[in-house]
Amino acid sequence: MKITGAKVFVGGPGKNYVTLKIMTDQGVYGLGDATLNNRETLPAKYLEDYLVPALIGMDPRNSEDIWQYLYRGAYFRRGPIAMAAFGAIDMALWDIKGKLANMPIYQLLGGKSREGAMVYAHATGADLEDLMESISYYLEQGYKAVRVQCGIPGMPSASYGVSETKGDVENYITDFSGIRPKVEIWDTDRYMRYMPGALAEIRARFGPDLKILHDVHHRLLPREAAEFAKAVEPVGLYWLEDPTPAEDQDALTLLRQHSTVPIAIGEVFNSIWDCNKLIEKELIDFIRVAVTYAGGITPVKRIVDLAGLHNVRTGFHGAPSHSPLSMAAQAQINAWAPNFGIQEYLVLGTPECDALFPSEHRLENGLFHVSDAPGLGVDFDEQEAERYRYKPGSHPIVRLEDGTLWNY
Ligand code: GCO
Ligand code: MG
């Protein structure tokens, strides 16, 4: 069996999804997602110029060897652009493998460990009352877990995860008005003074059962993060995410000395080498890598197994920039992983998105039910894809009030 060609598409409804389609001499094809939010053309170019030509003629069933070929073959290892490109190829090869076996990928991993995988949504509010409304909306939809972010009184601009438009959970990350980033202003002191009380009010309003998550988005210094984690301990968070910049792994030792709040980290990691020490030292409770920019199902399965040895659970990244293909790849792992925790999931199911990526996966009562279709269980309509083009966009950047650049 041989790979005969591959195509890369960039575009989608309100997003720049990077979709890879690998064709074979047996008519079976595989699909993968290489979307790296706000840098989308780069994995696409890497695929087109370097990887697709090398794949032609290879046996697509040898997904492990092909992964090693891509990773070791680059010599300059890791990095989100390369790993997103490898990730798309790896997903597509598992898709082909599943179709050949006539099985969903979770069966090839070891079968189902649960009926449905718990997901969390993003609740957001310009202020705390707005946020309370947004949480109630998700509870009515049957969600058991929500990430909560709200505006901070006196903060010069919206803080992370808060949209300027009420109820808009889609577009606070990317501004498509151009490539030059908008500037947001951040004030750690105001955040530290306000947020623990706001989280306590949310707990008081919604009771003990709601799983509450909160994302600091890398903005605190190690000591501040330890103080914050200690302050929010009585809230009983499901997790506190990215309290410090993820590269500063020692920061978590200090935090652990002061708080037992569960910590989730890893959305910016792109290999097992970025998180093996954190997992082995048991400094985190949830690992947040994404199947896309951590290089695909093959390496992420290794991360999941390592995490399992240390009682670290999964909580894969699922920001709205992920296409239904990588969300499906994660759903396949989530169905199997003995140490599954939760999945971030922002309903992608607009009619336009469903037309571009038809699938039988379904969300019901806050649980993701993976489809039993062979492979990833998501198709891609090339004709629909003709409607979309790449649109330049950017994350905001963050500065302190005196102009100092800070972490977005
Ligand atoms: C999350 C993340 C995202 C990132 C985004 C960057 O927890 O979902 O923090 O919102 O900001 O993926 O592109
Ligand atoms: Mg995050």
Automatic annotation (TrEMBL):
Record InterPro entries: D-mannonate_dehydratase-like, DgoD-like, Enolase-like_C_sf, Enolase-like_N, Enolase_C-like, Mandel_Rmase/mucon_lact_enz_CS, Mandelate_racemase_C, Mandelate_racemase_N_dom
Xref: SMART domains: MR_MLE
Residues annotated as domain Mandelate racemase/muconate lactonizing enzyme C-terminal: 128-262
One BP annotation, GO: carbohydrate catabolic process
Gene Ontology molecular function terms on file: magnesium ion binding; mannonate dehydratase activity
Family that this chain belongs to: Belongs to the mandelate racemase/muconate lactonizing enzyme family. GalD subfamily.
Name this polypeptide is given: Starvation-sensing protein RspA
Organism name: Pelagimonas varians
